[in-house]
Amino acid sequence: MDFQIRQAITANVTGSDAAEFQDIVNDAIARGEEHLLPGLGVFLEKWWNGASESERSEFSQKLAKQFVS
Fold it and tell me: Does the keyword Hydrolase apply (predicted)?
């Protein structure tokens, strides 16, 4: 992912509250447009970098369950 995309997304959401982030994620998922995926990736990256090992492990386990065939 291009670093400028990370900066732009970060600048666009800086100062947003939890409800606004939830709205952004829900809207991106509902719209299903692939150009919105990098933004969700930036959100995940920010969260991941601030998460504890136990939070990362729990998230990874939940995510893996969503991709069970």
Answer: no
